[in-house]
Design goal:
mainly alpha; 4 helices
Length: 111
């Protein structure tokens, strides 16, 4: 039975994206989510950042929406979260595992 925060979050995200899905279907054009992301704190203290990222990717892939994550290397956002003037070093492990699980381990579900 659906319920709880994760379900409510997924429903909210889908409802936000539905107008773009409908536009894509109506005009038979692709839709691209130019960037989405979360601040570093969203991955800490059970704030469900990994669920949110997974939900966005699942919704995009299920509806053939191209996307990219913001960003690869930035202090507060990003897969690597140290200053942009230095080499990537501080890996956001929770985000990296989410990408691994959703984009690599489940790639066959999408393509």
């Amino acid at each position: 039975v659906p319920g709880g925060l994760a379900y409510e979050q997924a429903v909210y995200l889908l409802n936000e994206i539905i107008p773009y899905i409908r536009f894509s279907q109506k005009y038979n054009v692709p839709v691209y989510l130019g960037e989405f992301g979360l601040i570093k704190a969203a991955f800490e203290n059970d704030k469900h950042g990994t669920d949110w990222v997974s939900d966005v990717i699942d919704i995009c892939k299920a509806n053939e929406i191209g996307f990219n994550y913001h960003t690869f290397h930035e202090t507060d956002f990003g897969l690597y979260q140290n200053g942009v003037d230095s080499s990537p070093g501080q890996l956001n492990t929770a985000l990296a595992e989410t990408f691994k699980n959703i984009l690599i381990a489940r790639w066959y579900e999408y393509w």
